[in-house]
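STRUCTURE:
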């Protein structure tokens, strides 16, 4: 459960680092699951997800391995994203007992050349009317500075949406927002970093001799509809905590039953299908790394 101090810190800073939310043993088991999953996928397709804009941060050729919506790949991850330790804190931050999945993405930043993320807000990728969206980055191994830990700009979410450069992945100009100038959130395996989709964040290259392994879960209040119909994915709309109170309410424009979003209520995009059924969104590539 979120304490009042933690909530006050989040309201001031737009992020919250919760240490030891999962045990080191749990994190190690998820890490193994994650690496086995990426190895399975790598055997049949590319899992590369480096942003084009990463080139602006480093001239070194870097690499980033990813998989979206991991709950369709392994039941362990389905349990993880619905784990009350995670979702109770998410609910406290979002300010709703109900927490809905937008999407999630597993990232492995390989040793010595793990790709950076230029500074950005997540908001331009999937704007929502009420800005309830938060990310939780679950660390499956330690993320010290040299592994390219996530960095944040404390309080930046209070600026609201900031103009971004679209090309190469929505990002902020490096001259104004150098990655090194942001606050590094060095983490231990089992720690979780929560932040608003308006918090400016990014990360540097993993130059260490070990991989950095994380799962990022994007969550929202189910009563916060998407402002534009974009960034849909197969698992979108899954309830992670509580229930969806929008059942029976008029769906937002573009989300009518049988419409593009397939009949979800407040933006719960159902892309259906599945791996064997030819689902286009399953386990898929929602644009590089997002
Ligand atoms: O995992 C990281 O280092 C940052 C990820 C990130 O910024 C994102 O996916 O939006």
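SEQUENCE:
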């Amino acid at each position: 459960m979120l304490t009042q101090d933690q909530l006050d810190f989040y309201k001031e800073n737009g992020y919250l680092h919760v240490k030891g939310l999962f045990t080191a043993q749990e994190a190690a088991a998820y890490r193994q699951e994650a690496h086995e999953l990426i190895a399975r996928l790598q055997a049949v397709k590319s899992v590369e997800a480096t942003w084009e804009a990463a080139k602006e941060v480093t001239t070194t050729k870097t690499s980033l391995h990813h998989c979206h919506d991991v709950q369709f790949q392994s039941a362990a991850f389905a349990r993880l994203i619905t784990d009350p330790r995670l979702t109770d804190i998410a609910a406290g931050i979002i300010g709703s007992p109900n927490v809905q999945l937008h999407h999630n993405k597993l990232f492995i930043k390989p040793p010595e050349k793990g790709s950076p993320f230029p500074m950005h807000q997540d908001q331009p990728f999937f704007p929502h009317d009420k800005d309830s969206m938060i990310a939780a980055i679950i660390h499956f191994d330690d993320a010290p500075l040299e592994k390219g830990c996530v960095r944040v700009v404390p309080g930046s979410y209070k600026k609201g949406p900031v103009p971004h450069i679209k090309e190469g992945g929505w990002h902020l100009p490096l001259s104004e927002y150098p990655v090194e100038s942001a606050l590094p959130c060095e983490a231990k395996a089992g720690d979780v970093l929560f932040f608003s989709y308006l918090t400016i964040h990014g990360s540097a290259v993993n130059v260490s001799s070990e991989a950095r392994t994380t799962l990022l879960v994007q969550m929202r209040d189910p009563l916060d509809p998407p402002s534009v119909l974009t960034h849909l994915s197969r698992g979108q709309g899954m309830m992670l905590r509580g229930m969806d109170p929008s059942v029976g309410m008029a769906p937002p424009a573009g989300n009518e039953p049988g419409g593009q979003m397939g009949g979800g209520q407040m933006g719960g995009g159902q892309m259906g299908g599945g791996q064997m059924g030819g689902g286009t969104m399953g386990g898929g590539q929602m644009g590089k790394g997002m």
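REMARK: Residues 257-264, 268-287 have pLDDT under 50 and may be disordered.
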